[in-house]
User: Fold this.
Amino acid sequence: MEHEDRKMPEKFCGCVGPIKCQELADIIGGEVITAAPVCVVQRLRDIKATILGRTTRSPLALPFALSFEG
Assistant:
């Protein structure tokens, strides 16, 4: 939802806000990437990943992200 005034309170703009976003990050053991207007939380998976038969610990292969908005 687009608003001209980005300083509107959460309850009016439909934003998630940093507190709820941090709560999600704490629950899944991840970190907040962005909190408003959409919450995006990322966590690295602890899996044995392979690419073309080779083991990888690449941060491009292991993360997963969750997002939500108000």
